User: Fold this.
Amino acid sequence: MGELKRFEGRTVLVTGASSGIGRATARALAAEGANVVLGGRRRERLDEVVRGIEAAGGAAFAVTGDVRDEATGPAWVAAALARFGGLDGLVNAAGVLGNGSVMDTTTAEWRRVMDANVDGLFFMTRAAAGALKTRKGAIVNVASVAGGVRPYPGLASYCVSKAAVDMITRCSALDLAPFGVRVNAISPGVVVTELHTVTGAVADYPGFLERGKTTHPIGRVGNVEEVASLILFLLADGAGWITGANVSIDGGRALASAR
Ligand SMILES: NC(=O)c1ccc[n+]([C@@H]2O[C@H](COP(=O)([O-])OP(=O)(O)OC[C@H]3O[C@@H](n4cnc5c(N)ncnc54)[C@H](OP(=O)(O)O)[C@@H]3O)[C@@H](O)[C@H]2O)c1
Assistant:
């Protein structure tokens, strides 16, 4: 008989699975035996990830929708239950980057970032809570070093949204602890994904990554596999006494001076 994988028989819903940290997490979970439900807006991108997981012998399927719509969470959870019979984990990785200071951020830009990073994450958490209580599952929220950990200039909407993720994490951890559901956050430094380029928030991306070598004391920016590894640790039974934590994964970025 083969060795039992860490997430064998578990079902995990990953938002933002069409790219970056969410996609790497979905792949890592599937490789460790989980049934994975991949959520995002871009159907083709999600299907491509699902095909890769299936080709490697894993079980996954894609659900599409916008996390800013409060109907999306219930639909994705219902799809997970219908296909896999329960839900053991939720990874809230969907998110967007905003740019601008408190002086020049437009109302529309402020709303865009809050709706995706705060409201969307709240809607997903609320929608999944019932199913997670049944299985005593776990949630991991992707916050940021630019948030509850520390502010950065010219990044007002994003920093405020990620500080809110930190507090949603702690409120959820308290509310769900009596039901055996753990909720934790992670705060990455700069990780190579599409986040900084997809909306043009960072004009000179190569230069930005180059600067990352000095702004992160460990001497480099991060990669998505490293972040996925931490998310899996926090989801797994080995982290059974960890809840309400916000774990930095940033090469020491939080310790260094502002950009
Ligand atoms: N990369 C970094 O340096 C870094 C550092 C700290 C924290 N983070 C956080 O890590 C998380 C993942 O970001 P990433 O770096 O992996 O960026 P990414 O490559 O741009 O991925 C973002 C994901 O979020 C999804 N998404 C965005 N808005 C959505 C919406 N309204 N509804 C549904 N899905 C939505 C995108 O999918 P669709 O476009 O298909 O919808 C995509 O899959 C974010 O919360 C980000 O703030 C990233």
Q: What stands out?
A: Residues 107-135 form the longest helix (29 residues).
